[in-house]
Amino acid sequence: MTPTPPKYTAWTRDQMAARIANDIEDGAVVNIGIGMPELVANHLSPNKEILLHSENGILGMGPQPAADAVDPDLINAGKQPVTLLAGGAFFDHSLSFAMMRGGHLDIAILGAFQVAENGDIANWSTGKPGAIPAVGGAMDLAVGARQVFVMMEHLTKDGQSKLVRRCTYPLTGLGCVTRVYTDLAVLDVTGDGFAVRELCEGLSLEALQALSGLTLRAA
Amino acid sequence: MLSKVRTSALEALADVPDGATIMVGGFGNAGMPMELVDALIEQGAKDLTVVSNNAGNGTTGLAALLAAGRVRKVICSFPRQTDSFVFDALYRAGKVELELVPQGNLVERIRAAGAGIGGFFTPTSYGTPLAEGKEARVIDGRGYVLEYPIHADVALIKGRLADRWGNMVFRKAARNFGPIMASAAKISVAQVEEIVELGALDPETIALPGIFVSRVVAVGKTAHAAA
Prior knowledge:
The complex is a heterodimer. Chain A is an alpha/beta fold. Chain A has one domain (13-218): Glutaconate Coenzyme A-transferase (3-Layer(aba) Sandwich), CATH 3.40.1080. Helices cover 16% and strands 25% of the residues of chain A. Chain A has 4 helices and 13 strands. Chain A has helices spanning 13-23, 93-101, 138-144, 205-212; strands spanning 29-32, 51-54, 58-62, 83-90, 107-110, 114-116, 121-122, 147-151, 163-164, 179-181, 185-190, 193-199, 217-218. A 10-stranded mixed sheet of chain A has the order 4-3-2-1-5-8-10-11-12-13, sandwiched between helices. In chain A, strands 7-6-9 form a 3-stranded mixed sheet, with no helix packed on it. In chain A, a hairpin with a 2-residue loop joins strand 11 and strand 12 (193-199). The termini of chain A are far apart. Chain B is an alpha/beta fold. Chain B is 21% helix and 26% strand. Chain B contains 6 helices and 13 strands. Chain B has helices at 9-12, 34-43, 62-67, 85-92, 103-115, 178-184; strands spanning 21-24, 48-51, 71-76, 97-100, 120-122, 136-139, 142-147, 152-158, 161-163, 168-169, 185-192, 194-196, 215-218. In chain B, the strands form 3 sheets. Chain B has a 7-stranded parallel sheet with strand order 4-3-2-1-8-11-13, with helices on both faces. In chain B, strands 5-7-6 form a 3-stranded antiparallel sheet. Chain B has a 3-stranded mixed sheet with strand order 10-9-12, with no helix packed on it. In chain B, helix 2 (34-43) links the parallel strand 1 (21-24) and strand 2 (48-51). Chain B starts with 8 loop residues before the first helix and ends in a 9-residue tail after the last strand. Classes of the chains: A alpha/beta, B alpha/beta.
């Protein structure tokens, strides 16, 4: 007997990114992490002034330049060429991480391997033997930003939930995630576990609970 | 007369001893002092500990120093990148030691060394594997980890312009670790595009006062600063 195929339609990465962009308020200072979160930049509304921070000393970062305007001294955290908006500023690494660690950023958007219902995040290492560890600024963003949004697939390739009761991968930060955007749902981290704000088309809260292996509640 | 100007990168690095701890500025290749690193390779010092954000990109700069077998240990935040194959191979072969430090702790440890701070409590890495074995404390209900300064024998940094007193201005996001590293080393060596007359730099825009710079070398406009 073949299992019943899922009846829901998961959001695409662009749809996830658009949801996040829509939730960022006019005037917010935001750090967009390397990887999947980079898509959020493509969906920021031109009607809002959102200041992008880059850990390597940029506030007011603009989009990718045209190929003939690439400047190797003007790159983002992923070392890709970017531009500076009018009003943007450059500064050294110490000041940049003071902005992060010191609670001056409104939102950090991070990718993750796992997020736990207590707000713990694991996103820098799978802990596999032989892997070369790299952490960069992830731990500073996790502890420092006022809100930490995570953007990730809900399930691993083999169907395991990336939302968990407690992280099993090496931690990046404790109790710091405030909201999770997956391809199936948007969830707030509360003192009482995950609260579901939104579900993708055709997915019920019960079905999401079953997929997640967690007790979830409506926001 | 006070002049920190050296005529060549090799001359500026002539006294770097084997076993030295060397800070190398840059974030990826932005701010990476390529000419100074090339001169260090030519100079021949070995058994080095390198403090830098990354562990080399491609085959130039820090990657070339690693490939030349001069580095015993790397202290950095983000070694693994798409083009870090030189470091990756050495690390997997057990030929280079790695101390992984979260980026904000790395820069603050360097800053602490330059600022005369003996240690500091940081929330970054609290409760994670990178805090294992370190003293932790809860202050006002929040967890912190004790981190110690990182001092260096030599810092290699890249700026845009300097005067003979060592005052410096930088270019865009290539500033990154430069000013901080210069403060934390016994000898800090800067490469710049051009050395200008005293008074030519606007004092309001000097991002690194000359007190932190020991030697400066003009290397001309590099491809990295063509724009």
